[in-house]
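Run log, item B.
One chain of 122 residues. Sequence copied directly from the ordering sheet:
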Amino acid sequence: MHETVIASSLLKIVTEEAIKQNKNLCIDEIHIKVGLLNCIEPETVKGCFEILAENTAAQKAKIFIERIPLTGFCHDCKKNISINKRHFACPLCHNTDVDWQGGNEMQITSIKVHENNNEEKK
């Protein structure tokens, strides 16, 4: 299950970044973008992250995952296209002679934090 590895890496990145900024930061939200060809199950990543984040600065963090469309160039209609589902044909002419680009991206786009105060430690 590679979602566990992804969740673990995500936790490491966001907690290290928060600590660099201020040792008393708590992570509220994590926004990531994932390419259409990345075979991850968003709910599984969220579940794994929740378990791994227990007793860390990210223990209450919510993860928001946005899928990035796959883009390409259709040789038949000579247009740049994009798709949001894994149906690898031009949505305009239905030709399969398309040069696809990307699709495997995964990036953290933002991290929302707040400063931990003494009341949260109780």
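Observations after the first pass:
- Strands lie at 25-35, 62-68, 70-74, 79-83, 98-101, 106-115.
- DSSP finds three helices and six strands in the chain.
Flagged for discussion on Thursday.
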